[in-house]
Description:
It is a single chain. By secondary structure, the chain is an alpha/beta fold. The protein is built from seven helices and seven strands, in the order ββαβααααβαβαββ. The longest helix is centred in the last third of the chain and has 16 residues, at about 115-130.
Amino acid sequence: xxxxxxxxxxxxxxxxxxxxxxxxxxxxxxxxxxxxxxxxxxxxxxxxxxxxxxxxxxxxxxxxxxxxxxxxxxxxxxxxxxxxxxxxxxxxxxxxxxxxxxxxxxxxxxxxxxxxxxxxxxxxxxxxxxxxxxxxxxxxxxxxxxxxxxxxxxxxxxxxxxxxxxxxxxxxxxxxxxxxx
Length: 181
């Protein structure tokens, strides 16, 4: 959403630097922003249907969304703004997953979320990646959560990559020391 100053952004072999977000979504990029940014006045169902907009037409909400996040089915007709923070996060992730992206970008999914919901979200991310269903790019400051899910890691400071490697080596490579509080 921020204009690129230099370089090129490619996805699936196609240059997408100048494409608007809706076209990137059509190509298979799902995005959950920091702070969730659900539509608070729309119902859970309407929020999930908004996630299907890139597919166009009369798509229906995939049952797997409710398998991953059963609370969403129970609250289908409640307004998004009436949900707890953890439920809103599940809704935001469900909305991004609804069209079946090839990659899911999650920006700080644990922010302000209670530990039991963090665990549920971690389980969903793990199941998505283990099945080879999609790639997940996780931007996260909660070290233990990131470490538990990482195949690879990359640490940036002021726009520069300062450390990268395999997720299984995060402790031995002292990644925690790179994090600022």
